[in-house]
Structures are given as structure tokens and as C-alpha cells.
């Protein structure tokens, strides 16, 4: 154990980062410069991964909210048509039926 405190700290930090990043076979650095490089590389890789994961989550949420909005609008249209069926002109009824068939 001739390593100074800084070296032990860097190696410990490297071990924790590699373990939590769960990469397949770890990159094995040989000297202090390589340890620091691998740590920075893993930080960048984890940041990119988390950024992509966040983007996919936002896209899925937007798609879900758009689908919910669309379903709600279809429900409102059905309610409107059933409530005002006798008062709608044949032109409006045809247009509504055309829109319904395209959905």
C-alpha cells in the first residue's frame, strides 16, 4: 500500500463508477492518467445514456398525452352529435360521418 491518498481515492472512485455503470468488461487502466481518462469517459457515456433515456421518456409522454387528447375530442364529438342530432343539417352530418370514417 504505497499509494498516496489521492491515488487510492481515484482508484476507489473508478471502481465505484465502473460498478454502477454496469459495463460488460471493464476498461483496465494502467496508470493514473488512464484512470482519470476512463473516469471522464465513463461520465460522458453515462451522461449521454441518461440524456437519451430522458428524451425517449419525454417523447413517450407527449405521445400518450396526444392520444389522450384525441380520445377526449372524439368523446366530445360523439356527445355533441347525440345531443344535437335532430338540429344538425345533412351537410354537417355527412362531414362528421366522413371524419369518423377517417379516424
Uncertain runs are: none
Number of domains: 1
First-to-last CA distance: 72 Å
Q: Helix proportion of residues, in percent?
A: over 70%
Shape call: rod-shaped
Beta-strand percent range: under 5%
Query: Could you describe the largest sheet, including whether it forms a barrel?
Result: none
Broad structural category: mainly alpha
On the 0 to 100 scale, the average pLDDT is 82
Rg is: 29 Å
Number of helices: 3
Summarize the structure.
The protein is mostly helical.
Question: Would you write up a description of this structure?
Answer:
Helix content is 80%, strand content 0%. By secondary structure, it is an all-alpha fold. It has one domain. The protein is rod-shaped, with a radius of gyration of 29 Å. The termini are far apart.
Topology, pairings included?
Elements lengths: L4 H17 L10 H52 L6 H13 L1
Provide tags for this entry:
mainly alpha; 103 residues
Amino acid at each position: 500500500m504505497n499509494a498516496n491518498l489521492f491515488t487510492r481515492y481515484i482508484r476507489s472512485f473508478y471502481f465505484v463508477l465502473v460498478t454502477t455503470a454496469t459495463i460488460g468488461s471493464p476498461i483496465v487502466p494502467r496508470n493514473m492518467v488512464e484512470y482519470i481518462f476512463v473516469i471522464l469517459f465513463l461520465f460522458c457515456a453515462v451522461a449521454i445514456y441518461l440524456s437519451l433515456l430522458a428524451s425517449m421518456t419525454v417523447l413517450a409522454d407527449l405521445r400518450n398525452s396526444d392520444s389522450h387528447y384525441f380520445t377526449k375530442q372524439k368523446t366530445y364529438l360523439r356527445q355533441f352529435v347525440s345531443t344535437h342530432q335532430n338540429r344538425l343539417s345533412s351537410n354537417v352530418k355527412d362531414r362528421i360521418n366522413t371524419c369518423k370514417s377517417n379516424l
